[in-house]
Specification:
The complex is a heterodimer. By secondary structure, chain A is of the alpha/beta class. Chain A is built from 13 helices and 15 strands. Chain A folds into two domains: 7-120, NAD(P)-binding Rossmann-like Domain (Rossmann fold); 132-284 and 317-339, Dihydrodipicolinate Reductase, domain 2 (2-Layer Sandwich). In chain A, helix 8 (173-189) packs across helix 12 (310-329). Chain B has two domains: 5-118, Rossmann fold, CATH 3.40.50; 127-283 and 312-350, Dihydrodipicolinate Reductase, domain 2 (2-Layer Sandwich), CATH 3.30.360.10.
């Protein structure tokens, strides 16, 4: 493929994350957003009144088959991802797809096969890899500043539980929420997971338990290189979105704290007080959504390989499935048990 | 005027020395006698200290009618025998953790101590640490609501000598046991399930000895609270001891204590002191506080806040962790179901 001057994009699905991607794409001067595809055409039209989008349509095929379109950004519901990837790959379009690719490993593999056969690029929306804090830790690891990685600790807590409707169709806390942390763990250890242990509790809302999910969970990953990763998750943190990572190795440790709206410290007779962490992922990871999209457009323009691949999407989902199984069967589960 | 309490200290290793020095600072206490087979060394160390007599044989302390209480800081294998002998002679006992070297002897000891009028305190010093105590009180008063998650990091500055590792009973009995007790203390709750594991990433000889230098344990508490402990036998930047409790109303976080609070900046970065280097420094105040509390229990006839039952329960959790890590899998690892294999049986299983 030759270098492209301008990139023409179709964004499929204009939910919360789709809108963010559209806004970010429009900030990149070399990008045209050719299509937004969404069944709620009128609603999207209203939202997009002031943005420079050429067409808002309800049919994905039209956008995918349009020869002008270079790349598609898939942020429709999860159960449509695999089919859309296959169609886009067959039409020779480069693809950005939100996580997870699918909840069925077989379907993920089929989609990835099509991507490989057609030679198009596929980037998965693990935006946290592009977060300034975690990016810095990754650089420190690459520069051998921490030495060999022995332990990775990840804390990931949401400010509010999602709606019960959402929980029911989410595939469970491990596939929906922890999946980002599973990817982070692979990214930082630079190794593959051998075995997963996961345990969950229902402490926040019994209704979450009634639909078969957990609202509080701990996962432990054992990696092929010997590293150990522990992850703790909660669906409700009263003080805001808590996102921290620590990597411990032979030469020391690196820790990323939360970002806050301001750095102001108020000291009174009651103690010392600081701002809470930024409220939720839209605030906390704002910059990383922009960076991942910029990175994707660069890959399309410069014919480079994406930093987050389809295999990364597959591996994270496999870990999530092993975690589900582990929590259910109350035992450690080897990755082969879910991948073969 | 009240007469002074006469103490005997058995075993003058690192901790025996710490306890002796702390006892000597207490007005109501006299250190009458210390026992250790390394007499010459101990006498040299004790120059200038107000210790009345040095004996080689610990029985002399236990049989001394003047002695009110003994501190047992000998190697763990002797704990059970010494406690029993001391109690039979009516001595009050302050014993180092772990309570005993295996579960069956700890259990026997527990039965023996039931209805005994003497006071027995187990040295879980972290319960007396300013940070952990504050967190314990914060949880009791409901400041962070119902605990959901606990995260604990415990890392030593230096690998222990290999001979120590071989005799230690494993990382869960030797190292994690403090944290197992701490979590019971802080949550005022009991452990229901344990999952643990580890690797030898620093020194493969530790792995060959059947132990780990990098390990974790996940505990599920009775009320569903999930705890995760991560540990390393070596951290190049010092003794790393942190704990976070996350609950329905917020969270509390214990950071490391440092020698100073000085912040230095240069063109490269902002720098703080490393954590205090080792447990003697990090937990110095707690060692003084725990023994003072024990003396207070003797003087005012109170029951020690950390008793043999606590010592035994921490061992149960350590045993469950050891079994879990050794892949003795069960559908649900319930610490109440654990059999009580002796140390020797465990070693046989390993080979």
């Amino acid at each position: 493929m030759t270098k492209k001057d301008r990139v023409h994009v179709a964004v499929i699905g204009a939910g919360r994350i789709g809108k963010i991607h559209v806004e970010n794409l429009l900030k990149i001067p070399t990008v045209d957003v050719k299509y937004i595809v969404d069944i709620r055409v009128e609603e999207v039209e209203k939202w997009s009144k002031d943005v420079k989008v050429e067409k808002i349509i309800s049919d994905a095929e039209t956008a995918i088959k349009d020869p002008v379109v270079d790349a598609v950004v898939i942020c429709s519901p999860t159960d449509t991802h695999a089919d859309l990837i296959i169609k886009a790959a067959r039409a020779g379009k480069d693809i950005f797809c939100e996580k997870p690719i699918d909840r069925d490993l077989k379907k993920i593999k089929e989609a990835l096969k099509e991507v490989e056969d057609s030679g198009v690029k596929l980037q998965i929306g693990f935006n946290r890899r592009f977060d300034h804090n975690f990016w810095k830790i990754k650089k420190l690891i690459e520069e051998k500043k921490i030495g060999d990685v022995h332990i990775v600790n990840i804390t990931s807590r949401d400010p509010e539980p999602p709606s019960l409707e959402y929980v029911k169709s989410s595939g469970g806390i491990f596939a929906d929420m922890t999946i980002h942390d599973f990817d982070m763990a692979r990214y930082l250890t630079e190794s593959e997971v051998k075995e997963v242990y996961a345990v969950g509790s229902v402490l926040i809302d019994p209704k979450i338990g009634e639909v078969g999910d957990y609202d509080t969970a701990v996962s432990v990953l054992k990696f092929e290189n010997g590293a150990i990763c522990t992850i703790d998750n909660s669906r409700k943190s009263v003080y805001g979105y808590d996102q921290r990572v620590e990597v411990f190795g032979t030469k020391g440790s690196a820790q990323a704290y939360n970002d806050r709206p301001t750095n102001v410290v108020l000291s009174t007779t009651d103690g010392v007080c600081m701002d809470k962490p930024l409220y939720f992922f839209l605030e906390r990871y704002k910059e990383s959504f922009m960076t991942e999209m910029r990175e994707f457009v660069d890959c399309v323009r410069e014919d480079k390989s994406p930093l987050v691949t389809g295999n990364d999407g597959l591996q994270a989902m496999a870990i999530a499935m092993a975690a589900n199984k582990s929590a259910l069967e109350k035992r450690p589960v080897k990755i082969e048990e879910v991948t073969t | 005027m009240k007469r002074k309490m006469n103490f005997g200290v058995i075993g003058l290793g690192r901790l025996g020395k710490i306890h002796t020095l702390n006892l000597l600072k207490i007005r109501d206490v006299r250190v009458k006698s210390v026992a250790d087979p390394r007499m010459e060394e101990i006498k040299r160390w004790a120059k200038g200290l107000e210790i009345t007599e040095f004996v080689c044989d610990w029985h002399r302390i236990i049989e001394d009618p003047e002695i009110d209480a003994v501190v047992i800081a000998s190697p763990t294998v002797f704990h059970a025998e010494m406690i029993r002998a001391a109690v039979e002679n009516g001595k009050n006992v302050f014993v180092e953790k772990p309570l005993s070297h295996n579960l069956s002897s700890a259990k026997e000891l527990l039965n023996f101590l039931e209805d005994s009028p003497v006071k027995v305190q187990v040295a879980f010093n972290r319960r007396f640490d300013h940070n952990y105590r504050r967190v314990h009180d914060a949880i009791l008063s409901g400041k962070i609501g119902k605990p959901y998650l606990i995260r604990s990091t415990i890392r030593d500055p230096q690998l222990p000598p290999l001979e120590f590792v071989e005799k230690s009973g494993g990382i869960f009995f030797d190292f994690f046991i403090h944290e197992f007790d701490n979590i019971r203390f802080i949550t005022s709750s009991e452990v229901e399930e344990v999952y643990a594991g580890g690797n030898a990433l620093w020194d493969e000889r530790i792995g060959e000895a059947g132990d780990y230098d990098t390990a974790f344990a996940v505990l599920k508490m009775r009320e569903g609270t999930l705890c995760v402990i991560d540990s390393s036998r070596r951290a190049v930047y010092g003794y790393d001891q942190r704990m976070e409790i996350f609950g329905s109303k917020g969270r509390v976080l214990i950071l490391n204590d440092r020698d100073t609070n000085v912040e230095t900046r240069n063109e490269n970065c902002v720098r703080y002191d490393n954590p205090k280097h080792d447990f003697q420094h990090r937990y110095a105040d707690s060692f003084a506080a725990e023994i003072r509390d024990f003396v207070d229990c003797l003087i005012n006839d109170k029951t020690p806040s950390v008793g043999p039952k606590d010592g035994y329960k921490a061992m149960l959790i350590a045993e469950a962790a050891t079994q879990s890590a050794k892949k003795i899998e069960r559908s649900k690892l319930n610490i109440r179901e654990i059999s009580h294999p002796s140390r020797d049986e465990r070693n046989c299983n390993k080979n």
